[in-house]
Description:
Number of strands: 10
Strand content: 5-15%
Distance between the termini: 55 Å
Largest sheet: 8 strands, parallel, barrel
Shape: globular
CATH architecture of the largest domain: Alpha-Beta Barrel
Number of domains: 3
Strand order of the largest sheet: 1-2-3-4-5-6-7-8
Oligomer: single chain
Amino acid sequence: MKTITFVDTTLRDAHQSLWNGQMTTAMMLPIAPVIDQVGFESLDFMALISMDWCIRNQQENPWDRLRLMAEAMPNTPLIVGGVLRNFGDVPDSVTEFWAKTIAAAGARRIRINDPCHDMTEIKKAIKWSNAAGLTTMVALIFSYSPAHTDEYYAGKALEMATAGADRIFIKDVGGLLTPERTRTLVPAVLKNIDGIPLEIHGHCTTGLAPLCYLEAVKLGVQSVHTAVSPLANGPSQPSMENILENARHWGFSTDLDEKALEAMSDHFRYVAKREGFPIGIPVEYDLFQYEHQVPGGMMSNYKAELKRRGLDHRLEELLNEIAQIRKDLGYPIMVTPLSQYIGAQAILNHTAGERYKIVTDEVIKYVIGHYGELAAPVDADVLERIMRMPRTKELLNWEPPQKSIEELRHEYGTDLSDQDFLLRVLSSNQKAVDKVLGAGPKSYDYPRGDKPILALVSELTKRKNTASVCIEKDDFLLELC
């Protein structure tokens, strides 16, 4: 009987997609020892964008989160990843230093995503990650377009395998895969990766991801990326419990501890109820998703931005504009950060009164190749218009500044620890960093949701006006005075 393994996304992509990234360290830490018992092949834990989110929105130090959770889950490899190059043109020296620092803090795997599958950048990331002792997971980011054929992905997979990737995963951030396409894509990729383990990471945006997962494991995919049921479905990943049960019907086995899995699920269901977070539910099929391809995790943020600008009533119009921009620009993959760049350009095209009257630096850089080779040519008229812009001429020969770590330390402070130094270099809000670093040790007290009586007692004993507590159920009686 063939065994499949599970990569858990609950603590990173799932809550980023479904809860807008609002899960705190306190919500994770009490259940961490139980998660460690489940038997996950690895755990998707943190990305650069979520590190910045910790600082800006939760006033938490992401290095503390990584260290504490790594200590609490010694048997489960934690995955950290991101796209450093495309967030503020981070120097190579920082990317290399970041890989060493996350390894020292407890990460054991690194997820390498490049939105253009730029092999120059991917090769450097593999080299630096291997030197840091990290297992490399390289993403084949799926998109639906005339340019993104099985042959395209097979070729990229061969390049990744040749570059030394330890693992490769199909990353369907837009939920665009269909069972039919899975049946052709997976064999094409497997043929070119010479036995390197292949994983699949999908979102349920169109509702098809669970079906694609089952097709994928039948064809030879070894690991599936799933979330526990309270944080699954919708814009998130498929439900772990559902995939586990269906795969078992097809003759696959797993080494998961299902009792621990149930406790983990109970805990996060409790967190959702306590915090007012949504529970993931399956979605209806949406054909429009194949045109605009806005990822589920971005959609909630985009709606909030439109509401802030008073444009929320123009959502469908702007999604149509996003679909047109994708065609204009040669079908860029709608994944961070390109999806955000295209979403911003759509708003500019709408509000400026003329399409491409104003073009962001990021879109110009994409068009002239600063983010890597384009999958398809830019529309000739759009390209001509962008190339005529004065700002384009300024950026044609621009190269991102390549400061050394020594130069940056002199700029940000020579007495900073490695972790504090990276917070300074990579954060978008220095005042938020000041607040986090000045706050001192933080309390991460939170009830265990899989132990409802203990959670109830914990909550009741925190009430200052309570003199005694009595809990009685069936033959159970607890009195606290």
